[in-house]
């Protein structure tokens, strides 16, 4: 069972058609066997009672007992196939779905939610549940109807009418609940995301006494979703009770109709009883459909959402496999913004870095420094121009193959659930030597050894046992793991103490010796002491770029000019003052 990145739910269903055919086959046998009670009644009333033969009754009863044992066995096997069908479907879809979710998260700031996994669970349950069986059973309704018509056209007509009425109720149920259920689903998943965000920021909320007001926002959405869900459930329950009562009534009425036909000598008493049983078989799939309608509608909506997700986030075309880069970086007149965004964040960026060069990036807040990092690392695509690593367009590299050659320390360091060793090794197979080497280069080895379980200390996604500075230093070790060719550090010293800063300066020195290209964003000048060149960004454009000292001198000159300008303006205004 191999899923590839192109496997959509539709493809997975097609791949599972073998199992679906088996379920259809079992359903065929079961539906044929379900004629047993009707045939038994027919024989008992019309043969046993009229002849008084006890042996016939015994034989018929033994046959019926055997057939019902077969029914039990077939139902059991069919249920097992359905469970495996759900699992098979999941196995096909889960991996490409996880990748599509990821692509969505990268491309849309608002797309970082795990609803597709909920949808996958809904769909899997829909496949393994009774809703699917109802569809297989519905196919057999015409056979039962045909038999009823053979008994007597009045019988067949009555059963057809009953089927149509119940079907109309199913349609009404669908219409009455679909909109509400969709809306309820959206509200509830919104409420879940809100709660997850609140939990992530629990300390800040508690510290600033924001818990009750933020809980109020969550409650409004949660209750809104619940209210819509309840309204949909009320309507569905009303229609489903009506359907059940109607079905029982119709089964009694057909006995009355049968009695009338017996009195008119159009059918035998056996046919009268068998007819009632057959009507039950006609109506039961409809009843089943009503019962599982919510699940069916939910599964269908989940299927459509997942198909849309795969359509919106197609896998990237297979990329070139290139040799290990040396770290030559070129940004050729690059303009870019957030994926899906309307306005560019950086524009006309043009710079070239040789392997081993170190560049410091400075600029006011929101000038586009972190955006530049995302571009250089190929996380966000360039809207215009091109980002090249060793001459190759970074967008064309295979992400999995390129990753080990890049080191990235984001501004908000996220560590993942697992051990410190696993985090440094980027969750690939842990190579202890490489992990320790990366930790040493980041100057964090001693600090890790002092932790309760050293490299095996478990951390949770939020960081758990670690302080912000420790997280940042372990993040640096992760960025340096396995000697990448290009490293981008986004404010690597924002949480560091003096020793941490020293370790960082040491790591930068080691990177220079190894010929690793380094870009480092920082608001603090200490870390920029060792860089070769400085790039000053302002409003998404390069204001200054050149050797560090010259840029610093130009900036100092500008500042003093600006300062002198201010003084001159003040003097002028002073002199203009009355
Ligand atoms: N995911 C995003 N979606 C839309 N806009 C974004 C996104 N990330 C950043 N921006 C916008 O891009 C602009 C530049 O942000 P960026 O994070 O690149 O700035 P920065 O120079 O790194 O700022 P800081 O020094 O405060 O970290 C900001 O106006 C920000 O609102």
From TrEMBL:
GO terms for cellular component: plasma membrane; type I protein secretion system complex. Residues 329-564 form the ABC transporter domain. InterPro entries: AAA+_ATPase, ABC1_TM_dom, ABC1_TM_sf, ABC_transporter-like_ATP-bd, ABC_transporter-like_CS, ATPase_T1SS_PrtD-like, P-loop_NTPase, Type_1_exporter. Residues 557-578 are annotated as: Disordered. Its main location: membrane. The chain crosses the membrane at residues 20-45, 57-77, 127-147, 153-172, 245-263. It comes from the Bacteria. GO terms for biological process: protein secretion by the type I secretion system. This is ATP-binding cassette subfamily C protein EexD. It comes from Halomonas stenophila.
């Amino acid at each position: 069972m191999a899923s590839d990145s192109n496997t959509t739910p539709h493809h997975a269903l097609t791949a599972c058609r073998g199992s679906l055919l088996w379920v259809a086959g079992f359903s065929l046998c079961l539906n044929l066997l379900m004629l047993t009670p009707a045939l038994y009644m027919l024989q008992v009333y019309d043969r046993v009672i009229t002849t008084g033969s006890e042996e016939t009754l015994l034989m018929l009863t033994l046959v019926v007992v055997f057939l019902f044992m077969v029914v039990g066995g077939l139902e059991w096997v069919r249920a097992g196939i359905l469970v495996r069908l759900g699992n098979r479907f999941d196995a096909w879809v889960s991996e490409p779905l996880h990748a599509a979710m990821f692509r969505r998260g990268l491309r849309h700031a608002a797309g970082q939610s795990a609803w597709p996994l909920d949808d996958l669970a809904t769909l899997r349950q829909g496949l393994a549940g009774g809703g699917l069986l109802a569809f297989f059973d519905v196919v057999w309704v015409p056979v039962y109807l045909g038999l009823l018509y053979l008994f007597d056209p009045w019988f067949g007509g009555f059963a057809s009418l009953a089927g149509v009425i119940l079907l109309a109720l199913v349609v009404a149920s669908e219409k009455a609940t679909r909109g509400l259920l969709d809306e309820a689903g959206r509200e509830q998943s919104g409420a879940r995301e809100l709660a997850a965000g609140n939990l992530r920021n629990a300390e800040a909320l508690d510290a600033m006494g924001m818990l009750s007001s933020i809980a109020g926002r969550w409650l409004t959405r949660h209750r809104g979703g619940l209210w819509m869900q309840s309204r949909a459930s009320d309507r569905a329950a009303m229609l489903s009770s009506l359907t059940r009562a109607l079905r029982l009534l119709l089964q009694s009425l057909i006995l009355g109709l049968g009695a009338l036909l017996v009195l008119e000598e159009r059918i035998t008493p056996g046919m009268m009883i068998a007819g009632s049983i057959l009507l039950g078989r006609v109506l039961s799939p409809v009843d089943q459909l009503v019962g599982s309608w919510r699940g069916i509608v939910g599964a269908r909506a989940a299927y459509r959402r997942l198909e849309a997700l795969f359509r919106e986030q197609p896998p990237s075309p297979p990329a070139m496999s290139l040799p290990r880069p040396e770290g030559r970086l070129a940004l050729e007149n690059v303009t870019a913004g957030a994926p899906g965004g309307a306005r560019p964040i950086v524009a006309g960026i043009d710079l070239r870095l040789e392997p081993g060069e170190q560049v410091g990036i400075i600029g006011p807040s929101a000038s586009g420094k972190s955006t530049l990092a995302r571009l250089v690392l190929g996380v966000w695509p360039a809207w215009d121009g091109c980002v090249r690593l060793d001459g190759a367009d970074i967008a064309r590299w295979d992400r999995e193959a390129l990753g080990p050659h890049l080191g990235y320390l984001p501004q908000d360091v996220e560590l993942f659930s697992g051990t410190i060793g696993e985090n440094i090794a980027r969750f690939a197979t842990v190579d202890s030597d490489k992990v320790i080497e990366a930790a040493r280069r980041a100057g964090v080895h001693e600090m890790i050894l002092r932790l309760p379980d050293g490299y095996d200390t478990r951390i949770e996604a939020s960081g758990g046992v670690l302080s912000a500075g420790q997280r940042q230093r372990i993040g640096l070790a992760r960025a340096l793991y396995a000697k990448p060719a290009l490293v981008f550090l986004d404010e690597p010293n924002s949480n560091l103490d003096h020793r941490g800063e020293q370790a960082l300066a040491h790591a930068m020195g080691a990177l220079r010796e190894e010929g690793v290209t380094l870009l480092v964003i920082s608001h603090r000048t200490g870390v920029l002491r060792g860089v070769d060149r400085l790039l000053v960004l302002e409003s998404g454009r390069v204001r200054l770029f050149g050797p560090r000292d010259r840029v610093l001198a130009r900036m100092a000159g500008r500042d003093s000019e600006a300062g002198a300008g201010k003084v001159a303006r003040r003097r002028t205004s002073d002199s203009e003052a009355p």
